């Protein structure tokens, strides 16, 4: 495993929620649940693999993936993050558990290791600014006993959910009833129906953050901005991400809109960038920032993440944000001036756990 001598979320110099914390606050800032994968990422491919040939990648990394992407991104931004997930009873599962709990300070007290169940695995290949993934795994067996899984925390500021058509997850409604602010994204609708009414748990959400393709299909519109306006009729805050173009948001409660362009970077691997964006937006929302600042910060963190490879372990923390801000191009300084109030003077970047080509080295350098 990689060294633990890196800066983790527990060492973060910035607590973005510091101004809003009080002695009666929930012990958990964000709760989430889902499937943890062991991700194996290949980068430096000149083109897509061709059938019947062998391709060599110039880079490779292993890291926890799946819901671990979001959990790590939240924790690295200083949020107290609790994850309920099943872990395989194998070396992959042990590695993922250690990387998240010991490496990132994520609370896994609501997670479980399942004897005899192997970890799901995803192989991701990044090329031409995109990625192709192949995954394998089996659904985790249900927990013993009669209680549901996951057990939602009694008190949490927020929850992050991934919605699926035709599916209702009981924990989402329960989290909302207990006062959690629910932020949701959505995956590709394999059925092709793109029925917004089939996203049953959308009614519990404060914010919905699909990408442009998903948003336009769900709303039957041909413009991301029109899609956001249509979604804002169903959910308080609608955010539509537009890749390199940036993002657009509508607050349906106030009528406020905001649009922030993307930041141009040399992208190495887009794996997990969408999760990092959501984590940045959640952070800004819980801290009470203006809508445009939330979009800007989310876009910045996503841009920083694609310059590293390795899904969850490419997520930036405050040291990376501070380093970017000290060297930010002049045209961007006015838009990101709000970072001056967040980043302490003299904050220095430190080595951070990143994806490595293998796991379980017997000896560390």
Strand content: 15-25%
Oligomer: single chain
N- to C-terminal distance: 11 Å
Mean pLDDT value:
88
Structural class: alpha/beta
Q: Would you identify the regions where 5 or more consecutive residues have pLDDT less than 50?
A: 1-11
Write down the secondary-structure element order. Answer: EEEHEEHEEEEHEEHHEEEHHHH
**Radius of gyration, CA atoms, in whole angstroms:** 20 Å
Count of β-strands? 14
Q: Assign an overall shape.
A: globular
Sheet having the most strands: 8 strands, mixed
Question: What count of helical segments does DSSP give?
Answer: 9
Portion of residues within helices: 10-25%
Kindly report the spatial arrangement of strands forming the biggest sheet: 4-1-9-10-11-12-13-14
Tell me about this structure.
- With 365 residues, this protein is an alpha/beta fold.
- The protein has 9 helices and 14 strands.
- The strands form 3 sheets. It has an 8-stranded mixed β-sheet, with helices on both faces. The protein has a 4-stranded mixed β-sheet with strand order 3-2-7-8. Strands 5-6 form a two-stranded parallel ribbon.
- A hairpin with a 2-residue loop joins strand 7 (121-127) and strand 8 (130-136).
- Helix 1 (67-76) crosses helix 6 (273-287) and helix 4 (212-219) packs across helix 5.
- It is globular.
Notable traits:
365 residues; alpha/beta; eight-stranded mixed sheet; disordered N terminus
Which secondary structure elements does this structure contain, and how are they paired or packed?
Blueprint: E1 28-33, E2 36-43, E3 59-66, H1 67-76, E4 81-84, E5 86-88, H2 91-104, E6 112-114, E7 121-127, E8 130-136, E9 156-163, H3 170-177, E10 181-186, E11 207-208, H4 212-219, H5 224-231, E12 237-241, E13 247-251, E14 257-260, H6 273-287, H7 291-305, H8 318-326, H9 330-333
Parallel strand pairs: 1-4, 1-9, 2-7, 5-6, 9-10, 10-11, 11-12
Antiparallel strand pairs: 2-3, 7-8, 12-13, 13-14
Helix pairs in contact: 1-6, 4-5, 6-7
């Amino acid at each position: 495993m990689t060294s633990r001598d890196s800066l983790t979320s527990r060492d973060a110099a910035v607590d973005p929620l510091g101004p809003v914390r009080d002695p009666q606050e929930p012990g958990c800032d964000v709760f989430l649940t889902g499937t943890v994968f062991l991700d194996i990422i290949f980068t430096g491919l000149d083109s897509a693999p061709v059938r019947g040939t062998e391709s060599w990648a110039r880079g490779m990394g292993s890291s926890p993936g799946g819901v671990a992407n979001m959990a790590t991104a939240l924790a690295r931004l200083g949020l107290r993050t609790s994850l309920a997930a099943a872990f395989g009873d194998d070396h992959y599962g042990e590695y993922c558990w250690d990387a998240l709990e010991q490496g990132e300070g994520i609370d896994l007290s609501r997670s479980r290791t399942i004897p005899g169940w192997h970890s799901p695995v995803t192989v991701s290949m990044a090329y031409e600014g995109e990625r192709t993934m192949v995954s394998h795994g089996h659904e985790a067996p249900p927990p013993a006993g009669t209680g549901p899984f996951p057990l939602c925390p009694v008190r949490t500021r927020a929850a992050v959910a991934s919605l699926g058509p035709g599916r209702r997850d009981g924990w989402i409604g329960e989290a909302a009833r207990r006062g959690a602010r629910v932020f949701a994204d959505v995956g590709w609708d394999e059925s092709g129906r793109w029925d917004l009414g089939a996203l049953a748990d959308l009614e519990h959400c404060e914010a919905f953050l699909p990408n442009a393709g998903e948003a336009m299909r769900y709303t039957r519109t041909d413009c991301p901005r029109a899609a956001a306006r249509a979604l804002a009729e169903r959910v308080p805050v609608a955010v539509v991400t537009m890749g390199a173009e940036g993002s657009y948001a509508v607050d349906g409660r106030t009528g406020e809109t905001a649009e922030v362009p993307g930041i141009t970077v040399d992208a190495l691997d887009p794996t997990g960038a969408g999760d990092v964006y959501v984590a940045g937006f959640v952070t800004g929302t819980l801290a009470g920032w203006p809508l445009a600042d939330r979009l800007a910060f989310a876009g910045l963190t996503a841009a920083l993440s694609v310059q590293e490879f390795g899904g969850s372990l490419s997520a930036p923390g405050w040291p990376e944000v501070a380093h970017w801000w000290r060297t930010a191009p002049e045209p961007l300084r006015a838009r990101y001036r709000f970072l001056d109030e967040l980043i302490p003077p003299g904050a220095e970047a430190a080595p951070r756990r990143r994806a490595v080509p293998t796991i379980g080295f017997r000896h560390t350098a």
